[in-house]
Design brief:
The structure is a single chain. Helices cover about 0% and strands about 50% of the residues. It contains 1 helix and 51 strands. The strands form 4 sheets. The chain has a 29-stranded mixed β-sheet that branches. A 15-stranded parallel β-sheet has the order 4-7-10-13-16-19-22-24-26-29-32-35-38-41-44, with no helix packed on it. Strands 48-47-50-51 form a 4-stranded antiparallel β-sheet, with no helix packed on it. The N terminus is likely disordered. It has a domain of about 80 residues: Immunoglobulin-like. The protein has about 525 residues and is an all-beta fold. This is Right-handed parallel beta-helix repeat-containing protein. It comes from Anaerobaca lacustris. Pfam families: Beta_helix, PKD. InterPro entries: Beta_helix, PbH1, Pectin_lyas_fold, Pectin_lyase_fold/virulence, PKD_dom, PKD_dom_sf.
Length: about 525
């Protein structure tokens, strides 16, 4: 029925057992042979075994449990299918209390079975690789989930790559593609195609740290829950989210040291479905969000909100177009929003209609809604919006800086609302063509002397794989209180001098924002060219 061979990989290291299953699958036009089952193969396999499944359909009448290091691989996700026939509630596949499991090239088919509570559940393990799998058609049971993949606790240094996950819990407020839970660390989620979820696509929670979320496509979600394309939530640190394409909502909540770069937020294919946000920052510190593009289908472009302190953020070259309510809203609430630098962003064609979240107050390009301090808007464009270019709303706005912005061709005034704080700088802003009036603000309170020029010095002969040093020249510690760096790779950094190692050659745009003790800021930029 099956053959077992013993190999030594590369002539060194531990013995590896190769188990090649020849029969036992239900193939087209053939009668299924019930033995050996996948359960029996996994239970009988030695540590380090390689189990290769042929093309065909295998029935899983109960969870398949893997608690030893092994590889389970099929002949391709379109050819090898593990289908649920379970009559009791449970996950389809469980990996627990083990490290070094490899799953590849097969489909887990929930087949619409309401007894399936999750696709794959992992816990207490490290160094797993899940790749080229399809996980599909799990309506869900129980109160939490279902998820295509749920790393429920203490899963570290694992890779989830080139997966297809679809139709998971579409009627459940918690239905999602991939969730990394408590104790997650050092995991990579990359090059996956996710679609069809009640809640969202990729979620990390409860202190999951050092996560990389790269080049994923997340479509058609939020049918029963809030509709989060990618969410990192709950006391996490050191997260990089780059080059993804999602319908709606990349959310950073309760995090430190996060980079969000070059993502496309497209809106749903169905124009009747409007998402809540494009980029959301909640209760987080030391965040950079650069070169992200939104092209409609969402209520609010950039959203900063919630009760805890939100501090040190750099927003650069983002384009928020066609939002239904506001291009941006900064709502500091009790903890306030502090020390945020907006540079060369575009807020355009914000709409105002019955589909807006607040139809009577919609249409503004950039909106303050109270408790915002030490904000800098530098060289942004607020153009062609149905309301004002800039709205000053809510209490406690102070230490605001507007320099070299373009506020043009808005249906409302250039600036709506009155500034009641003590410190404001308005300089070299281009205001014209606004139907509600080309009004400008008047500077007051700040020392308007030019901030000192700062320059970035880069260590000589930078190469990939070796540390590169960046130093901010002209930095006066008596004048400046903090520096935030965007190195165009990895997480944000702080300090006058920082060091970083790059893994690929190429050009990188480097930025350092230095904040003064009185709430102003200055930006220094440089270009890094790396060679091998």
């Amino acid at each position: 029925m099956f053959a077992v061979s013993k190999q030594i990989a590369g002539g060194i290291g531990p013995l590896m057992w190769s188990v090649l299953l020849l029969l036992g699958a239900r193939t087209e036009g053939a009668t299924a042979n019930p033995l050996p089952s996948v359960h029996a193969l996994v239970e009988a396999a030695e540590r380090g075994a390689v189990i290769e499944l042929p093309a065909g359909t295998f029935e899983l009448d109960r969870p398949l449990v893997i608690d030893k290091p092994l590889s389970l691989a099929g002949r391709g996700k379109d050819r090898t299918v593990l289908r649920s026939t379970a009559g009791q509630t449970g996950a389809m596949l469980i990996v627990r209390n083990v490290s070094g499991v490899h799953l590849a090239r097969f489909t887990l088919d929930g087949a619409g079975n309401a007894h399936v509570s999750q696709g794959i559940v992992l816990s207490n393990g490290s160094g797993h690789r899940l790749e080229e799998l399809c996980i599909r058609d799990i309506p869900g049971s129980g109160d939490f989930g279902p998820h295509g993949i749920y790393a429920s606790a203490n899963v570290t240094d694992s890779v989830f790559a080139r997966l297809e996950i679809r139709n998971i819990g579409c009627d459940s407020e918690w239905g999602a593609g991939i969730r990394i839970g408590k104790g997650g660390r050092g995991n990579t989620i990359e090059d996956n195609d996710l679609s069809g979820f009640g809640r969202g696509g990729i979620l990390t929670t409860h202190g999951s740290t050092d996560t990389r979320i790269l080049r994923n496509s997340v479509r058609e979600f939020g049918f029963a829950g809030p509709g989060l394309g990618i969410e990192v939530w709950g006391s996490g640190r050191r997260v990089v989210i780059e080059d993804n394409s999602v319908d709606h909502w990349i959310s950073v909540d309760g995090q430190e040291d996060v980079a969000i770069r070059r993502n496309a937020i497209t809106g749903a294919a169905d124009p009747a479905r409007i998402g809540s946000y494009v980029l959301e920052l909640v209760n987080s510190q030391r965040v950079v969000m650069t070169d992200n593009v939104a092209s409609g289908g969402n209520q609010i472009g950039i959203s900063v909100s919630n009760r805890a302190r939100k501090d040190l953020a750099y927003w650069a070259r983002n384009r928020m177009a066609g939002c239904q309510t506001w291009g941006a809203q900064i709502q500091g609430e009790e903890g306030g929003a502090h020390r945020m630098y907006f540079y060369r962003n575009v807020f355009e064609q914000t709409r105002k209609s019955e589909r807006s979240l607040y139809p009577g107050a919609a249409g503004h390009g950039f909106r303050f809604n109270g408790n915002a301090f030490e904000m800098v808007l530098h060289a942004n464009r607020m153009v062609g919006n149905r309301g004002a270019g800039i709205q000053l709303g809510g209490p406690n706005l102070d230490r605001l800086t507007f320099i070299e912005n373009v506020v043009q061709d808005n249906d409302g005034p250039a600036v709506a609302g009155a500034f009641r704080g003590d410190h404001l700088l308005w300089r070299a802003d281009d205001v014209s063509g606004n139907q509600g009036g080309d009004n400008a603000l008047t500077s007051k309170g700040f020392d308007e002397r030019s901030l000192p020029d700062l320059a970035i010095r880069i260590s000589a002969d930078p190469k990939t794989g070796k540390p590169v040093t960046f130093q901010l020249e002209g930095f006066d510690p008596a004048r400046f209180s903090e520096v935030l760096w965007d190195l165009d790779h990895g997480i944000p950094r702080t300090g006058r001098t920082v060091e970083h190692t790059y893994d690929c050659p190429g050009r990188h745009r480097i930025a350092a924002i230095a904040w003064t003790t009185d709430g102003q800021a200055t930006l220094a930029e440089a270009t890094l060219t790396l060679t091998d």
